[in-house]
Amino acid sequence: MITNTKRTLAAILTAGFAVGALGSLPARAQEGGAAPAPRQGWYKVCTKQEDNDVCIVQNIVSAPTGQLLTAIGLIEVTGKVNRKIMQVSVPSARMIQPGINVQVDGGQAQRIEYSVCMPDKCVAEVVLTDQMIAAYKKGGELVLTSVNFQRTPNPIKISLEGFTQAYDGEPIKQSELQERQRLLQEEMSKKAEEERKKLEDAQNAAKQQ
């Protein structure tokens, strides 16, 4: 039987994580030989959901096309519901059993099980502990590894620079979030144009041979 508290928490986490625009990213990600991915860095956003305050410290890594590679969100809910959750989102077409491995500075990997897979992404979820937060504050780099349907591990590296400031600091304003997204879109458009030009040049060179 699903309690009202569980329903409320599910609604909060679903709505809260959407604040970071994860749900707007396309499904399939470039893997393997993808160009360097645009990054937003660590930032915090907060919102009100029913009788609860929801804050999310997150980092989203996208391919130059805007496709989701990996997104991590540390979600803290306070109020009628009090809970801390970490969610990691990766592209769909994942092997479910391996889950997602999270490593800090090459240390022992923490395996996180998937909670749901949707057409555009798979989401792994785990209770966020004080020990995890402390490790991220002390660490230099996170490596998040999922396994695709071809059984190939896809490690994504995320710098922990700026994590402490984002976690302990004030949330960014909506205007700043919009500006971040605008700049990221410009960067992705620039990289996509560079990739298109490279492909066009290679095709022209092949025709002349």
What is the strand and helix layout of this fold?
Blueprint: H1 4-18, E1 43-49, E2 52-62, E3 68-79, E4 83-90, E5 100-104, E6 110-112, E7 114-117, E8 122-127, H2 130-138, E9 141-147, E10 153-159, H3 163-168, H4 174-208
Antiparallel strand pairs: 1-2, 2-3, 3-4, 4-8, 5-6, 5-9, 7-8, 9-10
The CATH superfamily name is: Invasion associated locus B (IalB) protein
Question: Mind describing the biggest β-sheet?
Answer: 6 strands, antiparallel
- Rg of Cα set: 18 Å
> Would you tell me which CATH topology applies?
Immunoglobulin-like
Please, what is the average pLDDT?
A: 80
**How many helices in DSSP terms?**
4
The residue ranges in which pLDDT falls below 50 over 5 or more consecutive positions are 15-38
Find the structural class using helix and strand composition.
alpha+beta
How much strand content do the residues show?
25-35%
3D shape: globular
User: Helix amount, in percent?
Assistant: 25-40%
Give the name of the CATH architecture.
Answer: Sandwich
Total beta strands = 10
